[in-house]
């Protein structure tokens, strides 16, 4: 864009509004434990880097890796849809994609002198990321989130989650028979689709999530950070996936409405035909 330097500010304003709005909406529905998922943690890290520690090379590497890795790819796994009339769907797209767009912008589109002044970590790191150190620090921050999540949600709120009074992402994925995660766990022989969520299945779920995170950051370190065109193509592909999912949503909704209208029209015609037949009998 013409003013790429304002994107972090735009992202921050929207993040504060949309995530806060979602929290209160989800709290009314008892879904607010979802706000403690990894995607929100990564958004928080991104905001901390942009406004508090822009000189931290470690935090920049972690944010760049996680925003372009597990966060952006979650659009595919969660089937996020760009549905313009739905605040919830738009918020999901924002949470999973806007951080990577912001990090891509500060990496590639800002002048060097602006980077040195406002985001010195980028200028200090240079054109390549140290793969070993980047993976190490990304794992550390991921484990920090995982430990906190287990302590305060999986273990600390286990009774509310087990009773069904609170919804979490892991219980939803593990109990949904059509979700990729539950089907994968079944195929690997770690559980049945009709089995209840227990400590064993939760452990397998988070182990698979850790592997997913680890695998997803390798392209970031090897390709996205080093080549602007590959980086942009990847983000465009993720956006196209969300558009495709949104188009599929609209087609599904409109087709159902069309079928329903045909059924109503058919019932109305049958009703008129029945009334005409009754009238003819009376006259005869």
Question: Helix and strand layout, with pairings?
Answer:
Blueprint: H1 7-28, H2 38-51, H3 57-77, H4 87-108, H5 112-118, H6 120-125, H7 131-155, H8 158-163, H9 169-175, H10 180-187, H11 199-224, H12 228-283
Plain-language structure description:
The protein has 284 residues and is mostly helical. The protein has one domain (4-164, 215-254). Helix content is 77%, strand content 0%. The protein has 12 helices and no strands. The chain has helices at residues 7-28, 38-51, 57-77, 87-108, 112-118, 120-125, 131-155, 158-163, 169-175, 180-187, 199-224, 228-283. Helix 3 crosses helix 7 (131-155). The protein is globular, with a radius of gyration of 24 Å. The termini are far apart.
Please, what is the average pLDDT?
89
Q: Tell me how many strands there are.
A: 0
Which regions are unreliable across 5 or more consecutive residues at pLDDT < 50? none
Question: What class would the helix/strand composition place it in?
Answer: mainly alpha
Helix content: over 70%
Distance between the first and last residues' Cα = 79 Å
- β-strand percent reads under 5%
Sheet bearing the most strands, described? none
Radius of gyration, whole Å? 24 Å
User: How many separate domains make up the residues?
Assistant: 1
Distinct helical segment count = 12
Categorize the overall geometry. globular
Order of helices and strands: HHHHHHHHHHHH
Short structural description:
The chain has helices at residues 7-28, 38-51, 57-77, 87-108, 112-118, 120-125, 131-155, 158-163, 169-175, 180-187, 199-224, 228-283.
């Amino acid at each position: 864009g013409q003013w790429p330097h304002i994107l972090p500010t735009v992202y921050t304003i929207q993040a504060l509004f949309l995530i806060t709005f979602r929290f209160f909406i989800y709290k009314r529905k008892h879904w607010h434990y979802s706000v403690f998922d990894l995607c929100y943690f990564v958004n928080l890290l991104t905001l901390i880097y942009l406004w508090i520690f822009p000189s931290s090379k470690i935090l920049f590497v972690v944010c760049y890796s996680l925003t372009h890795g597990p966060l952006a790819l979650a659009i595919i796994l969660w089937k996020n849809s760009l549905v313009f009339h739905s605040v919830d769907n738009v918020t999901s797209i924002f949470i999973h994609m806007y951080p990577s767009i912001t990090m891509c912008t500060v990496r590639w589109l800002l002048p060097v002198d602006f980077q040195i002044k406002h985001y010195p970590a980028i200028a200090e790191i240079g054109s390549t990321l140290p793969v070993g150190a980047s993976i190490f620090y990304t794992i550390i921050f991921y484990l920090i989130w995982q430990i906190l999540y287990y302590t305060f949600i999986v273990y600390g709120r286990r009774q509310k989650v087990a009773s069904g009074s609170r919804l979490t992402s892991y219980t939803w994925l593990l109990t949904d028979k059509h979700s990729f995660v539950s089907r994968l766990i079944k195929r690997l022989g770690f559980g049945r689709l009709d089995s209840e969520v227990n400590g064993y299945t939760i452990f397998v779920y988070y182990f698979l999530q850790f592997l997913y995170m680890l695998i997803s950051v390798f392209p970031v370190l090897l390709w996205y950070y080093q080549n602007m065109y590959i980086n942009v193509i990847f983000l465009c592909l993720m956006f196209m996936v969300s558009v495709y999912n949104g188009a599929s949503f609209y087609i599904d909704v409109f087709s159902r409405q069309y079928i329903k209208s045909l059924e109503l029209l058919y019932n109305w015609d049958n009703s008129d035909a029945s009334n005409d037949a009754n009238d003819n009998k009376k006259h005869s």
